[in-house]
Amino acid sequence: MDFEAAESYLLATINETVSRRMPYRLERMRAFLSELENPQERFPSIHVGGTSGKGSTSMMIAGALGQGGRRVGLHTKPHLSSMTERARIGGVSVSEERFGILLEEMMPAIERTTQSHGRPTYYETLLALTLVYFAQEQVDVAVVEVGLGGRLDGTNVIIPLVAAITSVGFDHMDVLGDTLEAIAREKAGIAKPGVPLVVAVTDPQALEVIRDEAAAAGAPLVDVNEVARVEAVRIEREAQAFDIVTQQARYTLETRTLGSFQRRNAQTAIVVMELLPQALRPSQAEIEAAFATLTIPGRMEVYPGHPTLVFDIAHNAEKSEQLVASLSERFADRHFTYVVAIGSGKDAAEILRALVMLPSNFVFTTFDTAGRHASNPLRLLRMVESLGSWGRCVADPVEALSVARRSASANDVIVVTGSTFLVANLREWWLVAA
Hints:
Elements: H1 3-11, H2 27-35, E1 45-49, H3 54-65, E2 72-75, E3 88-89, E4 92-93, H4 96-117, H5 122-136, E5 141-145, E6 162-165, H6 173-176, H7 180-187, E7 197-199, H8 204-217, E8 221-223, H9 224-227, E9 228-235, E10 240-246, E11 250-255, H10 260-274, H11 284-293, E12 301-303, E13 308-313, H12 317-330, E14 336-341, H13 348-355, E15 360-364, H14 377-386, E16 391-393, H15 397-407, E17 413-418, H16 420-433
Parallel strand pairs: 1-5, 1-6, 2-5, 6-7, 7-8, 13-17, 14-15, 14-17, 15-16
Antiparallel strand pairs: 2-3, 3-4, 9-10, 10-11, 12-13
Helix pairs in contact: 1-4, 2-4, 3-10, 3-11, 4-5, 7-8, 12-13
């Protein structure tokens, strides 16, 4: 099977979130992996969940683990450019050729699983492919990001060395619940007996729920707030520097990864790494070296110019608030033009409520992605007008960015944000056009 055929097969499964024969739970994922001879049991892993920050934290951990010559797998979602990004070793995505071969090898297991539990979904198949790839390549360790929630997420079949919850906020409320406590309970479902659970959650009620769930599961809870702190923050033009102080060491970090939220993610990542067995634990020098070269596409990714351009995925209220805080820190007293598209299932009102806190205007647009739908740009425009801001609608995303650039002054900042799909598409276009 070539990559195009593999991609077509997977896209055809994208709306199969549940099977008619089985409700939304983990039995199918376990059965599927059993048919594949349980690849997840053939390497040690680290499990990272949370509403926001889990992808960045996963990349920080994987980068540091790879500094000492370890063979490190990384699974994150969603991807920006290609499905192959879901399965990375040493920061390099699986090749398209290997991707097609892997899926072809998995087809008998897919067919057997379909007979007993219904066809594995897009997400389940991509996750299983990743785990098979890591097992075949004999990675030393894999960092696995939770897809959605935790308790019922497909990744929750792994038994990690350490697990982490980076934050709890309002997102995917149709699945996880409409209170922070309910969402926290779902995310705490990754707690497992004897596995340390690192928690960076700040909301007291959500944290209390996680404590209770961790205790019930027999998972030792480690509160990031109690064991690590950020000191000596220095914000530079295209980088930031800060110290992370733990009970074991002081880490002096310099990174091109901008944003106040990334300092929080760095705290979490370092606490996770300090809990790893000695054979896998990166040294202080390895951690500092990893941060010096770290890049996280689509998260406060800045391209200086006149005007400056920023790409940042902010598809829920928590990410939107983090974006605003980081823009305020990095670009004080500047005017912002947001180029925005938001998925139809998202809480657009809360996302926009945060963005209008800065001096700004908007260009609303859309995206065209299989199985996903964008909110009506005119509806978004009416929302920001009701919040006291203003903007316009431009259906084509590339034209929307062009309109924003033409109308901005040299000192303005243009921020492409909202949906992952919009940020991915315009980022890819920009890198080619620039």
